[in-house]
Amino acid sequence: xxxxxxxxxxxxxxxxxxRAAGEDAVARDLALRIRAGMDASKKREAELSAxxxxxxxxxxxxxxxxxxxxxxxxxxxxxxxxxxxxxxYDETRGDTYMRATDGSVSAAFQQLRLPxxxxxxxxxxxxxxxxxxxxxxxxxxxxxxxxxDDAVGEEGLVAICGTPLIVDGAFVGVxxxxxxxxxxxxxxxxxxxxxxxxxxxxxxxxxxxAAETAAALDQLxxxxxxxxxxxxxxxxxxxxxxxxxxxxxxxxxxxxLLGVWVVLVDAAGNELAVAGAVPExxxxxxxxxxxxxxxxxxxxxxxxxxxxxxxxxxxxxxxDLSGADRRxxxxxxxxxxxxxxxxxxxxxxxxxxxxxxxxxxLSGSADPRTLTDRLRLLAPNHRHDxxxxxxxxxxxxxxxxxxxAPLEDRLVLSGPYGGDLVLLLARTTPGSAARELAEVxxxxxxxxxxTGPASWGEPLIEAHRQAARVVGTMLRLGRHxxxxxxxxxxxxxxxxxxxxxxxxxxxHVLGKVIDYDTQRGTDLIGTLQAYFAAGQxxxxxxxxxxxxxxxxxxxxxxxxxxxxxxxLSADRSLDVQVALRLHSALGLGQ
Length: 590
What we know:
Blueprint: H1 2-9, H2 14-21, H3 25-60, H4 64-79, E1 83-90, E2 95-102, H5 107-110, E3 113-115, H6 119-127, E4 131-133, H7 146-155, E5 159-167, E6 170-179, H8 187-223, H9 228-242, H10 247-258, E7 261-266, E8 271-275, E9 293-295, E10 298-305, E11 308-316, H11 323-363, H12 368-378, E12 387-393, H13 399-402, H14 405-409, E13 411-417, E14 420-425, H15 430-444, E15 447-454, H16 458-476, E16 483-484, H17 486-496, H18 502-520, H19 524-533, H20 538-545, H21 549-563, H22 570-585
Parallel strand pairs: 15-16
Antiparallel strand pairs: 1-2, 1-6, 2-3, 4-5, 5-6, 7-8, 7-11, 9-10, 10-11, 12-14, 12-15, 13-14
Helix pairs in contact: 1-2, 2-3, 3-4, 3-8, 4-8, 8-9, 9-10, 9-11, 10-11, 11-12, 16-17, 18-22, 19-20, 19-21, 20-21
């Protein structure tokens, strides 16, 4: 056995493990199962690491063609197939066309187009669902056509797996991994290809958006190609956008190019970015025109995208602006609008992703391993083993905006669930979080219950249920606009929640004793009431019940067996006594 353990620690292959086990079949089977489990764990870690590497590689890619080549190469490598390829959706023709391949040798295959519904890829494109087969030529689930079968046959493909590329419900294309010999595709491989397809779809859309932005800037620059200053501005703005710069960088570049001060405001007039020597008070009013307009000592131009005014650039510190300078400001407004739009879309996507993950976590309907992987991608800088949960009830639209900086840094996930706003927080305690959220609750007019800490999975689900019950009790007690933990409510919270929570609370504390009495016709509940009424004296309780003290002790021992050791400790004893009072006073046992 020591030899087997040593070989396992040294990552020895299965053949060596089998040799070391010798005739001991049980030890050999156990060692091989452990070896298989270790290999599977390493494989999952390698796949997750590979996906992170892919995400980094795609994030740094700017050329659309290079992005697609990276995607198919990575798909072929990760799945371990002979060929990988990607088709893109042609909105004009309503079909998909071959855009990138890795490992392909057939010219006909590389020029193939797939009508929706035809072949495996056409079915994926039509249904937005993944499909796979170990033997495509003989698989009758798919509508075979001569052009598709001829191209697939010339390429020599047999096993094919395809998964859709979708972003925000919009179909982008299909990613395939294929083999020239029959082979099954495991669900883990299909899931891995799907994860890669998700990264690919988002990257394709982002690169397209960046390319469209660059194209828009190129068009603007081409109209003023003779103006060297405008060309320099174009290059500066393009570099900012393509390198992922924000509106602060655009405002700073504009202020430097023109020697002015710049203030960017949002649609409500709130400052988003400031650059240059801006005066304390900026006297300006928004222009109704989409063009640069002189208003007092300032120049104002709206930042508009898709017909929506997202903000405005206010320029000052210059008596006049030349025609070329005015065009630079208007160009900056266009770029600013695009960046604001991208930032809002990115924030909305992040919020949707968090809300979807939070719903899956709290409903308990998804695979915990998949949830953990998703959480690591969304919140890589947080630990997820001791989470505090806050349930905000009321008009919670401004809660996130009012969070203090320390609490914002500890926020792991947030989103709506069951009509409430739910926050998952790390590196804090319920009491600390409740105190930090008190001002948010007061100013926002929301009621917040904080529970935890809880570990990932069922404990977190139960902590959310508890927080939802507590916030309901707070509202019934009239504690609007407050933040509290269950400990802050005390016994009064239970009484105030009698129409909803009392029966459940009593059953939670005394359910096993009540059920025992009901099933066996005993009166352990009555014994407990007499025992506490007698100051926890078995002798005086026996006198009140007209039974022998040993009988009282035997009944108390039975209660211990039902409720567990420690039910007479200070905290649990109080819980039991309150539950007994509620059971008797409110007639819950009748």
